[in-house]
């Protein structure tokens, strides 16, 4: 009589696998719907080969089976590898070895994160205040106005000088008349004196008005600058 094992009919299938790679650990996932934990077998050889197999009955002496092999990378710590079967998925956790390069990389990453959280203070430039800006604009306007008014002041000064020269000429001419009047009669001298006084008074009034006009303009400009 033949044994039950020899009468089994097997159907091979290829389970779907996936690999989740993280900084400190890789996790191999094997999707095995319909299987139970006791129907699976996991082996790890000294040559870093991970062998996973399993079989389960599907009825009428028929069985479904699989066999998978995976190479374990050299940066995986074989002593800390673990397996867990849950919800039809086999989880094979493969922690990575801690090397000096990995430690230094973690240190650099921690330093970068700290610098990003607390950036170095940047030099601050003093922003111009509103008062300083207004004062600068006021000074610029005053300087521009002084430049515009300088030709007018020079023109007024030249005009006053011309009037003074004219008066000097007239006074000089009157001096010659005084000399002639000494030789003339009394009534004639009085009439000429009156005319000279009127002319000189008129010139003095005109000169006084010119000086007053210039002085008033200077006072107004001074008051404007003070404001």
TrEMBL record:
GO cellular component: plasma membrane
Pfam families: HSP20
Alphabetic keyword roster: Cell membrane, Membrane, Plant defense, Transmembrane, Transmembrane helix
GO biological-process terms attached to the record: cellular response to heat; defense response
Subcellular location: Cell membrane
Transmembrane segments: 190-208
CDD domains attached to this UniProt entry: ACD_sHsps-like
Chain residue ranges for the region called Disordered: 101-167
Residue stretches making up the SHSP domain: 7-111
Membrane topology category: Single-pass membrane protein
Signal sequence residues: none
UniProt-listed PANTHER family: HEAT SHOCK PROTEIN 26 (PTHR43670), INACTIVE PROTEIN RESTRICTED TEV MOVEMENT 2-LIKE (PTHR43670:SF73)
Protein name as catalogued: SHSP domain-containing protein
Lineage: Eukaryota, Viridiplantae, Streptophyta, Embryophyta, Tracheophyta
